[in-house]
Protein 1
Amino acid sequence: MTGGRERGGRIVIVGAGQAGYQSAAFLRERGHAGPLTLIGDEGVLAYERPPLSKAYLTGEVGEEQLWLRPETFYTRRAIERVTGSVVALERAARRVRLGDGRVYGYDHLVMATGARARTPAVPGAGLRGVHTLRTLADAAALKTQLARAGRVVVVGAGFVGLEFAAAARQSGCQVTVLEARGRPLARTASAPVAAHVARLHEAHGSRLLFGQDIVRFHDGGGGRVAAVELAGGRRLPADLVLAGVGATPCTAPAEAAGLRVEDGIVTDSWLLTSDPHISAIGDCALFPHPRAGTRLRVESVQNAVGHARLVADRLTGTIRTYDDLPWLWSTQFSTTLQIAGLGHRHDDELVLGQDPDAFSVLLFRNGALTAVESVNRAADHMAARRLLAGNIPLGRLEAAAPGFTLHGHLTARTSHPTSRPVPAAA
Ligand SMILES: Cc1cc2nc3c(=O)[nH]c(=O)nc-3n(C[C@H](O)[C@H](O)[C@H](O)COP(=O)(O)OP(=O)(O)OC[C@H]3O[C@@H](n4cnc5c(N)ncnc54)[C@H](O)[C@@H]3O)c2cc1C
């Protein structure tokens, strides 16, 4: 079972997060009848991570609402759930070994090990009160701390840092966000969106400091953080620190087994690793994307689900290459930011909409639309996804015309005025 056309082979999935759960679910949905084992090291049912930095922290969503599926979902579909950490891929014998010595044989192995939060490489990062946010356990600890903390410092103005900062402010904390670069979302969003996000946090009373490198966390006594020191010596008092400085893909067992690993487990366009009996999906996979013209590692629910679907299709006989349109969302305070497409290498941009709190930014490269970022404009986002996924052309001149809307453009390009009317039912 390499490309995987046999329906009865043993499939083992390592990592019971969004991508792992989803691939097991899709495999059964598509008729995989062989043994199916889902191994995860968190000891809980697969859950949604997005609310961990948002509604879970503010108490709008409880733990029981995070589970992707109840226990019965797995038992009814004969998906064997195993709790444990896979420490070795024994490729020659086609089996995985857990830390406690248990082994599981496979015909095809799916690596869905995700990523883990990075810790800042400065002294004091291990102090109590300095947290990262990746897992439900991280979020539960932060939620408890937020109820007690007065002064919160967030290191890193990426999505997780900013979402946590919003939740901390909504919990009544004094919030300072530190960012090494010159603006928020420097790697992920355009300048107009970044400016909006900065204004949004400032309007809610948070302080954002850019171009700030941290050099140390100070111990206030008893091993608990009391301040964050910046390059230049300034100290910011802190009861609680969130380090939102990105995530590192979990690749150790893959790398030790000799699979090709760079910033993620390297795959081809079919999401197969350098071993044709092993696929890699979700946050841990570094895969070629035709829209990027290069290999990418994407951390989003859409990517995890899209990868899971492609691998389940392949293992049940429908083979295609991966080219799903990337999209994601972020919620901060009552603002929703949605991004469709890949805008990181844009050379031109155009803002749609006059309302400073509801607009979209169209990003172009070499005159072609590559991404749309929408702030509180859900209809633009949905239209953008269809335009981009369908490769429906849109040039800057057209988009700049008075009265232009993405939805209008989509309708004009997808309606078929010449098609014959459907006959009425007899
Ligand atoms: C706080 C937070 C907020 C987010 N918000 C959004 C959002 O708003 N929108 C969006 O699109 N995306 C968001 N994301 C990203 C999204 O949640 C991830 O892209 C998605 O969870 C990736 O799924 P995955 O299955 O690849 O990895 P994960 O969900 O990380 O699952 C991987 C699992 O594998 C386990 N594992 C790792 N190594 C082993 C091993 N050796 N043995 C056994 N198990 C192992 C891990 O413990 C983990 O349980 C957010 C992420 C975080 C952390």
Note: The chain has three domains: 11-116+248-315, 130-245, 334-414.
Protein 2
Amino acid sequence: MQDDSFIPNENIAPVRHRRRASTRTRLLVTAAVAVAGLGLGGVAVAAAGTDDDGTPPAAAEFDAQARAEAASRADRSARDSATPTPASPSPSVSASPTAKPTASAKPKATTKPKPKKTTKPKPTWVNPMKGATITSCYGPRWGVLHAGIDFAMPAGTPVRAAFGGTVEKAGDVGDGYGISVVVNHGNGYLTHYAHLSTAKVGVGDKVAAGETIGLEGSTGDSTGPHLHFEVHQGQLWNQIDPAPFLRARGIDVAC
Ligand SMILES: [Zn+2]
């Protein structure tokens, strides 16, 4: 099949060649006639005849060149006439910048951020029984850990919440602490007030720092009126030393 399609091409080629040759001879004849008539330039025409089939090469080249130039000119003019059209709306666009500066100037004026300092008073811790004598600190005592600080004052002295929070325990549950109150401060810490003569708050009550939550007494396992104060960290009954804890919050206790 490949040979079949190849053969016709070979057959056409010689034919074209022959036809070409015949035109060339015809041209040479015409050239010869021209030479006879003019006497000049015949050699040039004859020599040129070997290059082209019918039309003189110079004329053909010029013709093709002229046509191409004309086409490109037309193309250019078409392009040139096309470009101005989208270009004409641009002036109206460039006219708008006069309005733009005023618009861009506005955000610049408002870019000055005024950092509003919320002068909210920082919640402070208070001494649960200010002016009391410290009779026992946190640490081992009589073979067991004394898990709080003892504050001594005359019986009935108000006991204040060291910090704001919610009452989690209030009353005597028979655990040796007597009438005691636990306040959950909601920040990972709880405070415990024990041996009270009376509790002034109930479970679920919201209390503020310095608010009276009970009165000093000697209920539970106690040898005399005093406030047993504890700080629980993270969870109830995880007592830590209240002295450094309070000192870090501006309350100095003699421990
Ligand atoms: Zn104690």
Note: Residues 1-62, 70-107 have pLDDT under 50 and may be disordered.
Protein 3
Amino acid sequence: MKLSQNYDYLQAKAEPYAEDILTHDNFLSMQNYYQHGSVSTWQHVLRVAYFALEINRKMHLHCNRRDLVRGALLHDYFLYDWHDHAAELNEHPKLHGFYHPTIALKNAKKDFDLTALECEIIYKHMWPLTLTHVPTKREAWVVSMADKWASFYETIFCR
Ligand SMILES: [Fe+2]
Ligand SMILES: [Fe+2]
């Protein structure tokens, strides 16, 4: 798996499945929010989408690539900087890890027509932190794994 910090490259990998998401103003607003270290939420979700595609390809999982990419791009669509405890949408600042999948799903439903699989990917990506939200679809497992790997990579190598 290519460990790239070239975000044009990562964006190009997602583009065939999600041009409408990639050009949406609220999606682009994630460039203004930090996720891990100096990495924006926008950069993070592009990486998660790319890692998810790579996990699917290398492990021959035959995931629905469109839902996989779109769910990955929207999995952290909470639309605030989670470090900013005063942000209007940051409803549970001390419990962001538990609540942000619900907020992301609510925001994503407002801006896009989501499939049931995309909803599952967004809602369950934080498992096992969100104990009862156990993924039941392979696409949701893949995005959850890609998210953890991307978070580890960004925390260690993108300072
Ligand atoms: Fe998340
Ligand atoms: Fe994430």
Note: The domain at 7-157 is CATH 1.10.3210.10 (Hypothetical protein af1432).
Protein 4
Amino acid sequence: MNQLRLNNGVNMPIRGFGIFQTTNPNICEQSGYQALRTGCSLIDSAVSYSNEEAVGSAIKKSGTAGDELCIKTKPRVQDAGYGNTKKACEKSLNRLQGDCLDISLIDQPFGDRYGSWQAMEELYQAAKTRAIGVSTFQPDRLLDLILHNTVIPVVNQIETHSYCRQRETQQFLRESNIQIEGRNNIFKHAVRGSRAQKYRKPLAQSIVRWLIQRNVVVIQKSVHPERIIENVTVFDYALSEEDMGAIETLDMKHSAFFDHRVPETLTFISGIRLDI
Ligand SMILES: NC(=O)c1ccc[n+]([C@@H]2O[C@H](COP(=O)([O-])OP(=O)(O)OC[C@H]3O[C@@H](n4cnc5c(N)ncnc54)[C@H](OP(=O)(O)O)[C@@H]3O)[C@@H](O)[C@H]2O)c1
């Protein structure tokens, strides 16, 4: 129940831990260690989070065996393209202190993503990464990547929560045999108290349960030990069909932070301004 089988046969835990914005290396190492010791073996890192070394140290300190881990990373948008992506993945491997990356993702659908994917396919074929996937790809860009390449991504990490459910995207991913993985500021929406109260569970757990019951891999960031435990301890109850449906009605069908289709998003993420 806690593991999902990806389209290439690799297992991925349905509960994960995020480290975005945990920039202090000591805090990152400590919270990563705590998550691993709590049994959360999926860690979502990225070059742009500037804390891969701390993740490597947390892994070492925790003593978790390599085959029990699922560590993800993503080169920066600025590393898009064949040569840069290869170099970036090699450097990530060094910082994470592993022999092989578990899952490598293209972080955003921007820049030379075909060059990036070619590099990732080669790293995958050379057993430098056990699986490859993408993040924040809309269905059209994802389908384009699939149709013009060999390896189908194992996962697409997107914003998905009760206020931006992405029903059609999840359907498309299911049909394409690509695992949906979700994130984004779900704890900011403290509206679902009554459902949580009904089950005598913290709101955070009710949010996580809803995602897990939708078959979404959930990743959360916290630097607080009690929250890390709370976020992982979600397998002892289930939301009823009725409550799942009630939460469904909260869907506003738009991003709670920013839309990747809006030109300003590309300018912001890539750091490149168009001078015309
Ligand atoms: N690929 C991408 O473009 C992308 C973008 C954004 C995020 N991500 C990944 O997704 C992960 C999660 O990001 P997110 O935006 O969804 O953040 P999140 O996990 O929803 O965390 C948001 C905030 O909620 C707080 N929190 C955590 N557990 C809580 C609990 N039990 N009760 C109350 N508050 C709690 C945390 O604060 P404390 O730390 O103070 O507890 C955190 O600052 C990131 O770390 C990153 O790995 C990927």
Note: The chain has a mean pLDDT of 91.
